[in-house]
UniProtKB/TrEMBL annotation:
Belongs to the binding-protein-dependent transport system permease family. The chain crosses the membrane at residues 7-25, 70-92, 104-124, 156-176, 207-227, 268-290. The lineage of its organism: Bacteria, Bacillati, Bacillota, Bacilli, Bacillales. It comes from Paenibacillus arenilitoris. It holds the Pfam family BPD_transp_1. This is Sugar ABC transporter permease.
């Protein structure tokens, strides 16, 4: 009988133990904790499904945070997809400066969230912000607008932050897909009289469908976990510790989770219920978005 080589298991053991201790165990423990009421110090009190019932029936701020998250996603994801594929196409066909264009567009993606929060809070400040000053000088405004203190403009600023940060990432992914498209297809279309716009709309975009599906699904998953941008805009460099922004218009699900866990109530059982309900929502919307964007392709 051939002896079993134990060395692969030996070298994999540190990772497995680390995963069990710092990922799987906390995940399972938080699931159990969602059925308790606990402030992190005293004894746990078993409440069964009460945390979930309260979350779904007696917590309007949870639905407000969920609504805000979806609105910001609707504002940012389609626009970022459209801009990403357009910028990628222009960069791919650029005669000169292609490397410079890639670098400039990708830099925001590797910029730290703290820096992004500082930049946008400064740009949209109602007194000294660059945006108000520019509009006033152009004659489009008579006085500064409170961009960060109006519910809809607050959402729009956060969506703009997301677009600015992720545009370079979308562009790089689309560029990678464009390099895989055979140039013979473009040459044949050009011989038939297709122009640049037709090449883009009839060849490039359809052949990048799988990449678009990937970006849509991953964007929805990351969008439902939105936290850094609104938190840093209203609780960091903006000079305030305002939770949720004006009229809670910038409150996202993860921000509510953090607030329930460590700031307002310190109820770890309730915050664990928020986390697992969000987990279920992410799964459902990931499946739905995949079916909607990739279903037609699979049925062919």
């Amino acid at each position: 009988m051939k002896a079993i080589n134990k060395w692969p298991y030996f070298f994999a053991l540190p990772f497995v133990l680390t995963y069990l201790a710092f990922h799987l165990y906390p995940t399972m423990y938080s699931l159990v904790l969602s059925f308790y009421e606990w402030n992190g110090i005293g004894d746990k009190a078993f409440v069964g499904l009460q945390n979930y019932v309260r979350l779904l029936t007696d917590d309007p701020l949870f639905f407000k945070s969920l609504y805000n998250t979806f609105v910001i996603m609707i504002m940012s994801i389609p626009a970022t997809l459209l801009l990403g594929v357009t910028v990628a196409y222009l960069t791919f066909n650029a005669a000169k400066g292609r490397l410079l264009l890639q670098t400039v567009n990708f830099l925001p993606y590797i910029t730290t969230p703290v820096a992004i929060g500082f930049i946008f809070s400064f740009m949209f400040d109602w007194q000294t912000g660059f945006v108000n000053e520019m509009f006033i000088r152009l004659g489009l405004l008579d006085e500064g607008v409170y961009w960060l203190q109006e519910p809809w403009s607050a959402k729009a600023v956060i969506a703009l932050m997301i677009m600015w940060k992720h545009l370079g990432y979308f562009m790089i992914i689309y560029l990678a897909g464009m390099t895989a498209i055979s140039q013979d297809i473009y040459e044949a279309a050009k011989i038939d009289g297709a122009g640049p716009l037709q090449l883009f709309a009839k060849i490039t975009v359809p052949l990048l469908r799988n990449i678009t599906v990937f970006l849509v699904v991953t964007s929805i998953i990351s969008g439902l976990q939105l936290f850094d941008e609104p938190k840093l805009l209203y609780g960091g460099w903006s000079g305030s510790t305002q939770i949720g922004g004006p009229d809670n218009a910038a409150l996202t699900v993860i921000w509510k989770f953090v607030d329930e866990s460590f700031i307002s109530n310190s109820n770890f059982g309730y915050s664990a219920a928020i986390a697992y309900l969000l987990f279920v929502i992410i799964i459902l919307f990931s499946i739905v978005s995949y079916r909607l964007t990739a279903g037609k392709e699979e049925s062919r």
